[in-house]
Specification:
CATH architecture: 3-Layer(aba) Sandwich
Radius of gyration: 17 Å
Number of strands: 10
Number of helices: 7
CATH superfamily: Nucleoside phosphorylase domain
Largest sheet: 5 strands, mixed, barrel
Distance between the termini: 28 Å
Number of domains: 1
Strand order of the largest sheet: 5-9-8-6-10
Low-confidence stretches: none
Strand content: 25-35%
Order of helices and strands: EHEEEHEEHEHEHEHEH
CATH class: Alpha Beta
Mean pLDDT: 92
Oligomer: single chain
Length: about 240
């Protein structure tokens, strides 16, 4: 079985998927966290790997950047490969004074002004919830393993937040002041999951902030990302 963007056989892909944006991060996760790893996709260098974590079959598949890219890969994985759960793992920018560099954010839902839902379904939707049960798994694992996370609504933007020249204009496009972070993919993933009756969640590490200008060493960044990866892996196999 193959799709226009995935060359894998049906049996090559697990029912649970971790989805980083960067193909090289998918490679890193596979090589450092999974056993008996097999490379199962190389089309467009959007690497996918399947292996075993604590005896459970898990796929790690890159999404690329932005809603159109994650929309393609999540749709094909859910629709044609019988994937049941996807957790996006990535980075984000802080949009709230209480959210600091290296905090881990769990999105309860994402607001976006994209026309994605209109073009896909002729539905004018701007907010989509993450999957409640999958989020509950993540919160349980975080509590049991003493990993601090911040939980709340997030923003999906078509514009990379560090390139925003006018913060007032940017903020004026999002209702309220209670959004914790901004990233570029979660809305697309959540919408596709809802459309197809699947589960989706999003975990993010904060790497830039409007309020916290702390610079990160490569060791600090790697340690924080590793903690988030383990949290996602433990949650997705519950």
């Amino acid at each position: 079985m193959a799709t226009p963007h995935i060359e894998s056989k049906l049996e090559d892909i697990a029912e649970v998927v971790l989805m980083p944006g960067d193909p090289l991060r998918a490679k890193y996760i596979a090589e450092n966290f999974l056993d008996d790893v097999k490379l199962i996709n190389t089309i467009r260098n959007m690497y996918g790997y399947t292996g075993y974590y604590k005896g459970n079959k898990v796929t790690v598949f890159a999404s690329g950047m932005g809603i159109p890219s994650i929309g393609i890969y999540s749709y094909e994985l859910y629709k044609f490969y019988n994937v049941k759960k996807i957790i996006r793992i990535g980075t984000c920018g802080s949009f709230h004074p209480d959210v600091k560099i290296l905090d881990v954010i769990l999105s309860t839902g994402s607001y976006c002004k994209s026309y994605f839902s209109v073009l896909l379904d002729n539905q004018d939707v701007n907010f989509v919830d993450a999957s409640y049960l999958l989020n509950e798994n993540i919160k349980k694992v975080a509590k049991d393993t003493h990993i601090p996370i911040k939980v709340g609504k997030t923003i999906t933007s078509d514009v990379f937040d560090l390139y925003v020249d006018n913060e007032d204009v940017f903020r004026a496009n999002f209702p309220g002041n209670d959004y914790l972070a901004v990233e570029m993919e979660a809305f697309g993933l959540f919408y596709i999951a809802r459309k197809l009756g699947r589960e989706a969640s999003c975990l993010m590490t904060v790497v830039d902030s409007l309020y916290d200008k702390k610079s990160l060493s490569s060791e600090q960044r790697e340690q924080s990302l590793n903690q988030m990866i383990r949290l996602a892996l433990d949650a997705v196999i519950l």
